[in-house]
Design a protein that fits this description.
Blueprint lengths: L7 E7 L7 H4 L3 H8 L15 H10 L3 H4 L28 H7 L4 E4 L11 E3 L11 H8 L2 H11 L10 H17 L3 E6 L1 H9 L4 H23 L6 E6 L5 E8 H7 L3 E4 L2 E5 L1 E5 L3 E6 L5 H14 L4 E6 H7 L7 E5 L2 E5 L6 E3 L10 E2 L4
Parallel strand pairs: 1-4, 1-5, 2-3, 2-4, 6-13
Antiparallel strand pairs: 6-14, 6-15, 7-8, 9-10, 10-12, 11-12
Helix pairs in contact: 6-7, 8-10, 9-10
Length: 371
């Protein structure tokens, strides 16, 4: 039997790129070249909720969110407008394929791959953000990743970054990736590009801005292929292209915690949650309902049905705990609700319903999280 030529793998995750984008991407020169010579699966369902961190944790574990426990992007921290996200590897229950690669003595690199902070990855630029006033982004990143590797990348390419603005952030990731492939030649490389996701959140699902973001991704893909060819790595490298979810256009925000507060299930002081018996935790296009006291589950169920019937609160479906488990989501919740088309959920307590234009902290013209 002939030996396999493949010596390394590069996984490129294009956040918010879905099957609906294939028709456009197949017309782009670099994507088309890879597409025509690849094995592919065009009809893929994301996990539920279809958001970035649960999806990427499922990619590296092969498990549903209910099993690997990364069931949302962010943690349940009701008093915070900007709760911490599940940045660290510790939130994933069980092993990952990159853990197994490292055990076998393989070199692994990760650039902004979700839920890898403080992992054993040797060349790690984790996706972490300094959310608190007393935190510094450089220090937070260095403490969660490969410090000297990150300092080297920042020294070489840091001038092109403007915080988390796109396309500057992905341009920095691209330069860092090309440098990493050439200098370190990892056995496994995982890269998370967020240009398209950010653009769709800000500008909507389909428009000139989103097409430009996809064009930039195609250009980045071409640069990667050119480097592999130049360095003699093309024939011995397997490239995996994937998307974690798509998005939908939205116009209205629903804050279920504001409704729960009016019924006495959430306690609020100075527009902050200070206690609760039942709590909504949003996943954008869907929302968990967590209940501390099992005796009030029937009451909350009746409320959700009432709000669904009214129609103005954007509830399309209500799932009970058994159904949530079957969907692969967090079965520690009592209920999960699915938003109607055009609606998404947040955790605010000020107003039950508002237009996207009225939102200051999390305004989005398109989002995900739907079944």
């Amino acid at each position: 039997m002939a030996k396999r030529k493949c010596k390394r793998m590069i996984i490129l995750s294009f956040d918010a790129m879905g099957a609906r984008d294939l028709q456009y991407m197949k017309q782009q020169p670099n994507f088309q070249k890879i597409y025509e010579g690849s094995a592919r699966c065009e009809k893929v369902f994301s996990v539920y909720p279809s958001i970035t961190y649960p999806a990427h944790a499922s990619i590296v574990t092969g498990k549903y969110p209910r099993s690997h426990k990364v069931v949302n992007n962010s943690l349940i921290q009701p008093g915070r407008i900007f709760p911490d996200w599940m940045w660290q590897r510790k939130y994933i229950h069980g092993t990952t394929f990159y853990d197994e690669a490292i055990k076998k003595g393989k070199k692994v690199a990760a650039l902004l791959w979700p839920v890898t902070a403080k992992s054993k990855i040797q060349y790690n630029l984790p996706e972490v953000v300094a959310l608190r006033p007393w935190q510094n982004q450089i220090v937070v990143s260095a403490l969660n990743g490969s410090m000297f590797y990150e300092i080297d990348l920042a020294r070489r390419f840091g001038k092109c970054i403007k915080g988390i603005q796109q396309p500057e952030l992905d341009n920095f990731v691209q330069l860092s990736l090309l440098y990493t492939l050439k200098k370190y030649r990892p056995d496994l490389t995982m890269v998370h590009f967020t240009d398209l996701d950010t653009t769709r959140h800000r500008k909507g699902l389909d428009n000139e801005n989103t097409y430009q973001a996809m064009d930039r991704h195609d250009k980045r893909l071409g640069e990667i292929m050119e480097l592999l060819q130049k360095e003699g790595m093309e024939e011995e490298t397997t490239i995996v292209l994937l998307g974690d979810h798509s998005q939908m256009d939205v116009h209205t925000i629903v804050n279920l915690n504001a409704l729960l507060a009016k019924r006495g299930y959430v306690k609020v002081r100075n527009k902050k949650i200070i206690g609760y018996r039942a709590l909504a935790k949003h996943c954008d296009g869907s929302c968990y309902i967590y209940i501390k006291d099992p005796s009030i589950v029937p009451q909350v169920a009746d409320l959700l049905k009432e709000w669904k019937k009214k129609g103005c609160y954007g509830i399309e479906k209500i799932w009970n705990r058994k159904q949530v488990r079957e969907l692969g989501a967090d079965d520690r919740c009592s209920f999960m609700v699915e938003a109607k088309e055009g609606y998404y959920f947040l955790d605010g307590v000020d107003s039950p319903v508002k237009r996207v234009e009225e939102e200051k902290d999390h305004p989005m013209k398109a989002t995900h999280g739907y079944l």
